[in-house]
Amino acid sequence: YNNGELLDQVTVNSIFPPSPTASISASPSSVASGETVTITWSSSNATTCSGGTGFNTGGATSGSVTVNPTSNTTYELSCDNGTVVATSSASVTITSGTGKKPIFKEN
Fold first, then answer.
1. Taking the CB of residue 51, how many other CB atoms lie within 10 A of it?
2. What does residue 90 show for φ and ψ, rounded to 5 degrees?
3. Average pLDDT, stretch 4-23?
4. Residue that wins the pLDDT comparison between 7 and 74
């Protein structure tokens, strides 16, 4: 304003990308040591995702990999949009035993 007269009007719009989400699951979540587990992840509003120790996403924002844990393990996922990071985790519990089925022989 200059003496009550509007000289110029400026509009400022702040544009923030939507916050990302991250989701991860392990199936099955309880196995014998060394058995196969499928880790599946997905995200929204993310440009890249990365896996923590034990699995690699290759940067993909969704997908699945198989792992063979030998101890109780928590798999962590981080997905980001360049500004905000979302995280999620899934745990696998190792049960006692080897996971191998017994072989019975007849005498």
1. 21
2. -140, 140
3. 77
4. 74
Tell me which of 83 and 98 has the higher pLDDT: 83
- Residue 75 DSSP one-character state: E
Is residue 77 within 8 A of residue 21, CB to CB? The reply is: no
Determine the Cα–Cα distance for residues 89 and 75; give it in Å rounded to an integer.
Answer: 5
Torsion of CA 54, 60, 63, 65, to 10 degrees: -30
* Cβ atoms < 10 Å from Cβ of 3: 5
Q: Phi-psi category of 99—alpha, beta or left, where left has phi over 0 and alpha has psi -120 to 50?
A: left
Quickly list H helices, the chain. none
> What is the tens place of the pLDDT at every residue in 14-71?
677 899 999 999 999 999 999 999 999 999 999 999 999 899 999 999 999 999 999 9
Give the Cβ contact number of residue 87 at 10 Å: 13
The encoded tokens of residue 75 equal 């798999």
